[in-house]
Design brief:
The complex is a heterodimer of chains A (300) and B (110).
Chain A lengths: L1 H15 L3 H24 L4 H12 L2 H13 L3 H19 L8 H17 L7 H8 L1 H11 L3 H27 L3 H22 L9 H27 L3 H23 L4 H28 L3
Chain B lengths: L3 H7 L1 H11 L2 E2 H11 L8 H13 L3 E7 L5 E7 L1 H25 L4
Antiparallel strand pairs in B: 1-3, 2-3
Helix pairs in contact in B: 2-5
Classes of the chains: A mainly alpha (300), B alpha+beta (110).
Chain lengths: 300, 110
């Protein structure tokens, strides 16, 4: 009969998806409830097995309880929503007002973003951290892409050393986030889809991704629009309670961003569009799959 | 026709604030107190109590702390916060006004 309780707790864990400390707290609280309830039912004359059976029935479906507790704990405030949307808004403004023309703007912004991301990482990893974290990784990824365009020997060094290092770094950060909730890793990775999309669009021109003023000038309003779409979707993500709605919002925004990039570039074909969608889906499905694996391997 | 459990569900926040406002309590104790004090009228579905408590805690109206119970076991006691007390006072006024108005309709003075 104990296995029935273990199974109930495991079902709760499978659907709670909170940070480990809070999850432990919630599980312990429900265990104490079962303990009290069973004790009283046994005092009223029920056997241990019947008491546990009745107690778990009274508690209700583990999946529903877990979902309701998740919804109660994971809805962010409007302040958190604004903070999470802020890096996207900053980039939307930079492109809309053409501040990117100033050579110092982007490096300064990335340093500020990295600073905020480090602050958030060491201060309890709040909801708003993840988009900042995504942007703080941009220069690392961009540096890798730039290295690929250097003479052949450098390209090989990049492929064999730098890219594995970046992938390892990304995996370590993603796994750390996954332990809390895989949907947050989507918050971090989604800006990368927009970034890669624009890089693909720029790469259609001859030579290294053509970041010439004329090219960037034409695309700037559209780039701004994609960041604005991301900002709105991230704010909605933080405010929404249901997990499926949150994930749907981010996925939809990814698809909208891909459509904007394809239409604005006027050079990327269906293959690029499908590649971008597949990339977004991989950002969605891989973390979900890995989180499931991690949870299954955790001791009950 | 509004079902009884829907009435309870719609007013659970006020009930919880009121009960915890009288003394800090833990989950199972709240279920029992609700049932006892209402003479069996408020039979709350146990699994839905905790999401309600967590919502109130997230809103800053309650604060949960692990403390030893009378039996010596650690239980998560919920305490009402200053913000919770303020909301509770407002809710009480609303309820009393509502009840007075309801009484005027249900039992009209001849």
């Amino acid at each position: 009969m104990k296995t029935k309780l273990t199974q109930y707790i495991q079902n709760l864990k499978d659907h709670l998806t909170m940070d480990p400390a809070s999850e432990k707290d919630v599980i312990h609280e429900l265990e104490t409830h079962v303990e009290d309830s069973c004790q009283e039912l046994q005092n009223s004359g029920l056997s241990e097995d019947d008491a546990l059976e009745k107690c778990l029935t009274q508690l209700g479906s583990a999946k529903i309880v877990a979902h309701q507790i998740y919804e109660a704990n994971n809805q962010g405030t409007w302040r958190q929503a604004l903070l999470a949307a802020l890096p996207h808004l900053i980039f939307a403004i930079i492109f809309a007002l053409k501040w990117w023309i100033d050579i110092n703007t982007l490096p300064v912004m990335f340093v500020v973003i990295l600073g905020i991301a480090i602050y958030g990482w060491y201060h309890g990893k709040p909801y708003w951290l993840f988009p900042w974290l995504g942007y703080s990784l941009f220069p690392i990824v961009a540096a890798g892409v730039s290295l690929l365009y250097l003479p052949e020997a450098w390209a090989w060094i990049t492929l064999s050393l730098y890219i594995p290092f970046v992938l390892l770094l990304l995996s370590l950060i993603t796994i750390k986030i996954l332990k809390r909730d895989w949907s947050y890793s989507l918050l971090m990775l989604l800006p990368a889809a927009a970034f890669i999309g624009w890089l693909l669009a720029a790469g259609q021109k001859p030579g290294f991704p053509n970041l010439k003023i004329t090219f960037m000038y034409g695309f700037a309003p559209w780039t701004s629009l994609t960041f604005l779409v991301l900002a709105i979707s991230v704010a909605l993500f933080i405010r929404l309670r249901q997990r499926w709605l949150r994930v749907t919002t981010l996925t939809t925004s990814g698809i909208i961003v891909s459509i904007v990039i394809i239409l604005a570039s006027n050079q990327l074909g269906p293959a690029s569009f499908i590649s971008l969608i597949l990339l977004i889906l991989s950002f969605l499905l891989v973390p979900a799959f890995v989180e499931r694996k991690i949870r299954r391997n955790e001791p009950a | 026709m509004i079902k009884q459990n829907e009435l309870v569900k719609g007013n659970i926040n006020s009930l919880l604030l009121c009960l915890i406002g009288q003394q800090p309590m833990y989950g199972y104790q709240i279920i029992k107190e609700l049932e006892d004090k209402s003479q069996g009228y408020f039979k709350y579905k146990e699994g839905t109590l905790y999401p309600a408590l967590h919502r109130l805690e997230k809103a800053g109206l309650l604060e949960g702390k692990w403390e030893p119970s009378a039996g010596g076991h650690q239980r998560r006691y919920y305490h009402i916060t200053a913000k919770g007390n303020k909301i509770l006072a407002e809710k009480k006024v609303q309820w009393l006004d509502f009840l007075a108005a309801m009484n005027l309709i249900i039992t009209p003075i001849a």
